[in-house]
């Protein structure tokens, strides 16, 4: 492994429930009586794209909404939640980052969410951007995940073969993007994607550091 690529906000902090809360708050702000419960949201997470989920809901109800505006409100509310300290690093992720840096492994935070979301989660977790050799966002690609474009871009910018990259993803769309780019991928489901089918991809245990660096874990 020459590059370790953390593929979504959810690989740093399990924010899935915060995001659902932000969606529901945004719906109220826009005068919609929608309320996504946890079971519905779990099913929605089988596909990538928050704005697409809003458009799908509107189509199902036969109404027209400004999905982009609603999603922008949701993102602003989510960022405010992060600014309020409502996020913690997932178990072992900081250990994995530190070990990768110590080993000289290149590090990437390879998302296709907004740069504002990226900046907010890094600030909430006290992670300086310079921790990573590359950080991507929706600004960097034409097509978000599950398209593999962002992973091709990351390998190119890091000057590393895609075959030498290991990706960690918490959702099916992200896993698909990594595999389609020809990269090894480890699924690390969040609390709302734990029952999703990752197609036989290796699934990380509770602690990411122990999964990626088992010899270090055994030595503790």
UniProtKB/TrEMBL annotation:
Its EC number is 3.1.3.-. Transmembrane segments: none annotated. It is an enzyme of class 3 (hydrolase). The keyword Transmembrane does not apply. InterPro entries: CbbY-like, HAD-like_sf, HAD-SF_hydro_IA, HAD_sf, PGP-like_dom2. It comes from the Bacteria. The keyword Hydrolase applies. One of its GO terms (molecular function) is hydrolase activity. Keywords: Hydrolase. Pfam families: Hydrolase (PF00702). SUPFAM superfamilies: HAD-like. NCBIfam families: HAD-SF-IA-v3 (TIGR01509). This is Phosphorylated carbohydrates phosphatase. It comes from Jannaschia donghaensis.
